[in-house]
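FORM 7B: Structural annotation worksheet

SECTION A. Query
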Amino acid sequence: MRASGSFLNAVTALSKTDLTRLRKPCVEGDVLTTVRVVGDSMLPVLRPGDCLLVRRGAPVREGDLVVARRPHGLIVKRAFRRTGEGWWLESDNQRAPGRRDSWDFGSVPESEIVGRVVLRYWPRIAFRLAVPRLRAR
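SECTION B. Predicted structure
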């Protein structure tokens, strides 16, 4: 998955532009960035059209979703494990057409990790509240 240039950037395997930064710091020194998912490589967790909030420079742990810079563009992947060369990043859906991850290009250096995904904010999560049924008398 890579990014394309708009306010909410697409994260696909085919485009070539960088993330757009939001101008609001979250915490002193932290900057939040938004990305929009395109492609099926992170199904079922992320779907095409999902909008994500990314904390730039956030510490990464195994299992986190991260955005990384690659020569072919930006990708969003799962941080699988730390290696001597950096992070091994994998797609959740290995059968997705056009999938590109560490199986194709090896470990990603720590300096190429843009940030950690902290929130999917669109589409909104549907909450279903249990509403008691009223019975007619």
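SECTION C. Observations
The radius of gyration is 17 Å. The chain is about 5% helix and 40% strand.

SECTION D. Sign-off
Analyst initials: ____
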